[in-house]
Design brief:
alpha/beta; Transcription Regulator spoIIAA; 5-stranded mixed sheet; 5 strands; 32% helix; globular; STAS_dom_sf
Length: 101
């Protein structure tokens, strides 16, 4: 399993946490750490999951834990991650934007 997470600061004080790869029980600690760090240093956080290839219940739980600081979650339109967020109800707590690319 491979996971890469980077945080990109924006000029307005927000940060985008970019996830590339699989987020599961074995790798969710990296996501938690990145979201926690962004929450401490940025005025708001965007979670970019457009390159996430797998997103399990541990990942959903980590995002729920940081929902109060997330401005939006970006996902591929009609993809598995968008379905997971909808089924979990996370899309009722954080704005989810589906993209075509």
């Amino acid at each position: 399993m491979s996971l890469s997470i980077s945080t990109v600061p924006a000029g307005d004080g927000t940060a985008t946490v970019v996830v590339d790869g699989e987020v599961d029980l074995a790798t969710v600690g990296q996501l938690r750490a990145a979201l926690g760090s962004a929450a401490r240093t940025a005025s708001g956080t965007v979670l970019d999951l457009t390159a996430a290839s797998y997103f399990d219940s541990a990942a959903v739980k980590a995002v729920f834990e940081h929902a109060d600081v997330l401005r939006e979650i970006v996902v591929p339109a009609g993809g598995i991650v968008a379905r997971v967020l909808a089924i979990s109800g996370l899309d009722k707590h954080v704005a989810v934007r589906q993209t075509d690319g």
